[in-house]
Design goal:
Blueprint (H helix, E strand, L loop, with lengths): L17 H14 L4 H22 L3 H18 L5
Length: 83
Amino acid sequence: MVKKLKKQYETPSEGWNGDRIEDEKGLMDDYGLRNKQEIYRTQSQLRSLRRQARELIGTDQTSRSSRSYRRHTNLVWFGRTPV
């Protein structure tokens, strides 16, 4: 059976917004991104990591220690935090 692929990012809800387009252009220049898809993918990854961090803060201390270690290794792997 073939695995169904899903999108790895979400596009903005509004089609055209001058301020957003200028901000995205600046991000492309600053970080060397090739297209808007890379911006949207990175924003989705960061959104997911922030959501996981909020969930981790809300859990009790016993389960937090093992989960926080796994989250930290994920952040290091993504290159978001130093080792």
